[in-house]
Each structure stands twice: as structure tokens, then as C-alpha cells.
Amino acid sequence: MITITAVFLLISGIFAALAKVRKNTKPSEFIAVFILGLSTLILTKDYFFDGNGPNQTITFILIATLSVSFALGELLKKKQQPIFLIIPFLLSFVLLLFPELSTHEYLSRGVEDVFILLGFAAISALTPIIMHVFNLLIKYLTAKFSPIVWNKTDAHLLESALAYAFIGGIAALGGFLLGKLGLLIAATFFLSTSFIARNRTSITPSILLSTGGALFLVSAAFMIMEQAGFQALDLTNGEVLEGIFMAGFIAVIYELFIRLAQHRKGKWRVLLLFKALFVPVMIIFLLGFAYTQLERLGGVLTLSALLISLGVLSLLYSTFKIASNIIGLKLITLGSVLLIAPLFSPVQQSSGIDLGALGISQDEQSKKPKAAGKSYHEKLNEPNGQDLAQAIGKWTIDEEASKVFFELGPVGGRTSGEFSVVKGSFNVKENTAQSEISVAMPVKNITTFNSMRDESLLEEEYLHEEKYPEIKFKAKSFTPEGDAYKVDGEFTLLGVTKDLSLTLKLVGIGEKDGKEIMVLWGKASLNRTDYGMSSSAKIGDIVDFHFEVQLKR
């Protein structure tokens, strides 16, 4: 569905850009913004839940509201009666027919009260009318009590100011009352009234459409972030600032080529139109691709910041280009981001062990939930540990089923990876303190989920795979600590051996293909500079890791 929606947006963006080149934006602008809103609402279907699982009731209500309003706007565009403006306001009361919406949640935030939902929808639907009244009032008071001549440009600037105030107020109030759902509700009902407003208000249509489009772009950015596992944008992060300013860059480049195309004919017009579309798409791809080289150079956060900033910038653009809009660029950008973002999402480390398949159960309440702002080890789903005495005997590590996961780097720019092959043995003695464990990890089996980076890791500057093909650990003693064991041993990297302590847990003993299977879990940290590597604040010196090891008799 995401791919289909993205392609639909890209095709629509091409037609919107073509209409702008031909200077025929009035009818296409309404259609293009409707497509933007509709596509965003379609994406929400995977993010609404109730107590029983996914529930698309709110999605359907919002799609129906936007579609009905758009259709009425088209049918009634030649009529001037202002009474039609209250239709979206009346449509908001449909929410009262679904009291169960109070049990729904969107992007992990519950609705709680359907009347808050209704109030937010109603206010958003009335906002274009309020802006209209306020604009007329200021015009009247200025003419009545001051020597200032209130012209069209002054009115347009005031309209834009009111639109920005609405977005800011909705972002604050909506976030407090409804979370990210507040922006989505505001976008739907504000744009619904904008479709019907047309020439029935003193507010320029492009201002209204840009405001609604901006809210939908922000809503889409939140969904893309959620899909990648991010909860918020931090403006102190370079990749976020990068997205903010690159939004301005692609907007200017797009407008430049469109303007040039408007004054050309034939193949030159086609070529310039192609450049207007191709350059932003390439920039978006490069911003995503940069993440594969270093997390803090791009990725989903950059693309999300770009979407949000483009929405805000488009409103500013409409302020000074009264009869124009960059809706084509919005469609192209959102479509491109939807296609590209999944390719550059943060690495989700795999799990080496399927405990259920081995008949090993764990107490779910004992697991620590992942949470933003916590350290690597604090975010791990740590299992319960058992007594090693039940596993006395010699065991061999299953190379293919066992993995060591690691992470390093500064906060906000962590590099994740894993060793996909682990070899070795574990001899659990009756006196568990004297047990023996020996582990080797072939360096060639390291991955950071980026082939170019992996190749550089194997070179002399880092792991020097040709000279030191394996990383090794050999235990010297086991000391019980709660449901775990503190294992002291020797860790060898780049030919350098240092003492290293790690936490080890026996997760359980199960069975597979008639053979006993033991599962171990553990964690530790080390400083890579202790083994001869150069210190680097950019890369990070402390390596945090944990392992899931499956062994057989």
C-alpha cells in the first residue's frame, strides 16, 4: 500500500508541476492538495488501534469528510452563498456517532474522550471562517481609524500570519490534548472547509490550501518517523538541521527550473521540467543514502525534518507568490520519501534464538521495554537467568544460530552491527565456578548492514582481517550474581589480550530434532582503544555488546 501510494503521489506531482509550467494552477491546485491529504490519510490505517487490534474507523471518517468536502467544493464552486462553509463543521459531529473512538489510539497516544476529538475537529473546520472575519475586521478598523491604505498585499501578509498562528496553536494544543492525532484532525477539517471556501472568503485560496497541505506533510513525517522507531526530532542533531535547510534548497531549485520552463517551449521546456522534478528526488535519495555512510549524515530523521520544513516553507512561498503554490514539489517529495525512507531506516538487530521453537518459555513481565534516552544495555529485553548446575556437561556452540550484537558511537549517531557466526565450546563443571568457555568470532562475518562500511572495517586501520582473522574470548572464572553470572576472562582483539568481565545468563534448556539445546545470553562493554585502535569521538570508543548463543550437546 505504501508503494502504491508513493507512486500515485509521484505521478500526481508530475502533473501538478506540468500544470504550473503551463500556468494553469487554479483547478489543479485543489485536486493536488486533495491528493496529498487523501494519501496521508490512507497511510494512517496502519497506526490506529483499539483494544482488539488495528481499527480504521477514524481513518474512514476522515477520508469521507475530506472527500465529501472536496466534491461539494467542486460542485458548488460557482455559487457564492457563505452558508456552505459550515458543512465541514456539521460533518465533525459525525464523530459523536462513534463513542467507541474514546478507546482508540494513534501513534501510541489514546483519544480518551470523543468530545475532545469533536471539539478539535469543529474548531479546525471553523478556523478559515474565523480568519476571514478577523481579516475583514482589521481591514475595517484600519480604514476607519488610521490613515493607512489597506491594500491586497497587506491583507495577504495578515492572512499568512493568521495561518502560521493557527499551525503553531494547533501543534501546541493538539499535542497536549490528542498527541499527533490533533494535527491530523486539524489538517482534515481545516482543508475540508478550505475546499468549500474558494471565493467565499477574503482569504486567498492558496494560503488556505498551503496551510492544510503543511499540516498533512507534518502528519506524514510523524508516521515515517514512527515506522523507523523515532519518537521526536531533536534540533540539536545535525541531520535534523540538514533536513530543515535542504527543504529550502529543493524548494528554490524546483521554482527556478519551473520558472525557466514557463518561458521556454518544445524540448527545452520538457528538459527543464525534468530537472525541476529530478533534482529534488536525487537530493532526497542522497540524504537517505548518506545515512549508510554515517548515521549522523542523513536518514529518516533528515527526511522527516525536510517534509515538515517544506510544509512550513510552502506557506511562506504562498505569502509572497499570491497566485501560486509549490504543491507539485510537496507531492513529489512525499512520494519520494515514502519510497526511500524504508531503505535507510535504523538497523533493527535480528534475534539469533527462537526460544519458542526450543520449548523455552520466559516471563514477559521480566523484560525491560525499549525506551528512548536509555543506554544500549538498558534498552535490551533482558531474560531471566537460571542455575548453570542443570547444564553440567560439554556443549558446542551452534555457529549459525548464535550471534553477537554490538553498538557504538555518540548519542543520536549510534552504529549497530553484529557477528553472524560464533564458534566455540562450553564445559559446565559440577563446580560451576571452574567452568570453561571458549569463543571465537570470525572477523569476516561482521556486518554493520552497509557493505561499503563493512569492507573498510576489515582493512588494516580497524580489524585487519588478513592478519587477525578471529576475535576470541576465554573464560577464567564464574561468580554467581543474582540470576546471572559474572564471567571473568581474556578477550583478544588485533592480537592484544586484555581482561574482560561480562554478564552471562542461562536462559534455558530446550530440545530440537531430539537433541538438547542450551541458550545463553550475556552483555558487556569494552574500549576498542585498549586494543590498539585510534580514538575517535565521531566513531565512538566504547563498544557495547550483547550475545545470544545456542549450544548443543
Tertiary shape: elongated
The count of β-strands is: 15
Give the percentage of residues in beta strands. Answer: 15-25%
Distance between the termini: 47 Å
**Structural class, please?**
alpha+beta
Mean pLDDT: 88
Number of contiguous helices? 13
Order of H and E elements: HHEEHHEEHHHHHHHHEEEEEEHEEEEE
* Spatial order of strands in the largest sheet: 5-8-9-11-12-13-14-15
Computed over alpha carbons, the radius of gyration is 29 Å
Helix content: 40-55%
Biggest β-sheet: count, sense, barrel?
8 strands, antiparallel, barrel
Note poorly predicted spans.
364-372
Structure explained in plain terms:
- The model is unreliable at 364-372 (pLDDT under 50).
- The chain has an 8-stranded antiparallel beta barrel with strand order 5-8-9-11-12-13-14-15. It has a 4-stranded antiparallel β-sheet with strand order 2-1-3-4, covered by helices on one side.
- It has 553 residues and is α+β, with helices and mostly antiparallel strands.
- Helix content is 46%, strand content 19%.
- Strand 6 (403-408) and strand 7 form a beta hairpin.
Question: Which features would summarize this protein structure in a list?
Answer:
553 residues; alpha+beta; 4-stranded antiparallel β-sheet; elongated
